[in-house]
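README, section 4: Worked example with a bound small molecule

Sections 1 through 3 covered apo chains. Here we extend the same pipeline to holo records, where the ligand is supplied as SMILES alongside the sequence. The molecule in this example is flavin-adenine dinucleotide. Nothing else about the input changes; the structure line simply encodes the ligand pose together with the chain.
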Amino acid sequence: MEVIKNAKMKNHSNMKIGGEAKELIFIEKKEELLEVLEEAKDFFIIGNGTNTLIKDGKIDKTFITLKRLNAIKLLENNRVYVEAGLDFSKFIEFMEKNNLSGLENLAGIPGSVGGLVYMNGGAYGTEIFDYIEEIEIIDNNNNLRKIKKENIKYSYRATEIKEKKWIIISVIFKLEKGFNKEKVKELINKRENNHPLDLPNLGSTFKNPEGYYSAKLIIEAGIQGHKIGGARISKKHPNFIVNEENAKYSDVIKLIEYVKNNVKSKTGIELEEEIIIIK
Ligand SMILES: Cc1cc2nc3c(=O)[nH]c(=O)nc-3n(C[C@H](O)[C@H](O)[C@H](O)COP(=O)(O)OP(=O)(O)OC[C@H]3O[C@@H](n4cnc5c(N)ncnc54)[C@H](O)[C@@H]3O)c2cc1C
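The generated complex, written as structure tokens:
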């Protein structure tokens, strides 16, 4: 493993905001993680940091990354073993190489496999849990366990893993034959056209309330484009907050509160953050 003291966390969040953490540990074998967990009191597992807003200043936490646990292996019957640290884009490349289908709708999501599974990420009607067979986790008693999907609770952007703060080590996916290259191309183009990818951001800031789209509610509240400090509600996609000019953590937090208050007073609906915030 590699331990980096006084790690600059802005380099590990896609928002390019974040202070200095006590340490950042790169795990290379799952046994090392068990060792680290025995010692670490206050820790946070960071994947690609594409959904995580990190506070400024000193952070008295151990950040642990599984980025180097990134093996991927083809099993029999269109099943694939994937370690949690693998970039989801590499998984899509592997699907293409092996002519496997199922998760094409998620192409272009910049997270790690662990990050996506943790919150049951998804796009265009597909969720990552749709294609999961089994997940290997470390539970709160530091036990390494394999759990079949049918024994894990999950719903829209929520999982028992998140609720219980388990750590995902690896996942077995059950896919189908026939990679759809055209669909992947089309959806990546769509993302490039609709998302403000030229500025640091964390994807959708708020979950969609049942029966509504957060983006639409923000437009209806008349606040798209509003800016606080260096952070702005994207003009391209209102559910994205972008770091336009060296935004501070506090700018983003104020903007989130501003959106929630305005949407609530103008539409009566309460928005809930999709992003993870390290306070
Ligand atoms: C441009 C853009 C577009 C996006 N589009 C989508 C989209 O269409 N759909 C969607 O669902 N999301 C989307 N996202 C959000 C984000 O990419 C996903 O939520 C992704 O799954 C986060 O993965 P990550 O590795 O970056 O997680 P991080 O931000 O590093 O972490 C997120 C959470 O996952 C936990 N976590 C990470 N790895 C593990 C692990 N191994 N075990 C336990 N917990 C873990 C962390 O502790 C944290 O709580 C988008 C983001 C961006 C920037």
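What to look for in the output: The longest helix spans residues 249-267. Residues 14, 44-52, 66, 84, 109-112, 114-116, 118-119, 121-123, 167-168, 195, 197, 201-203, 276 surround flavin-adenine dinucleotide (CB under 6 Å).

Section 5 describes how to batch many such records.
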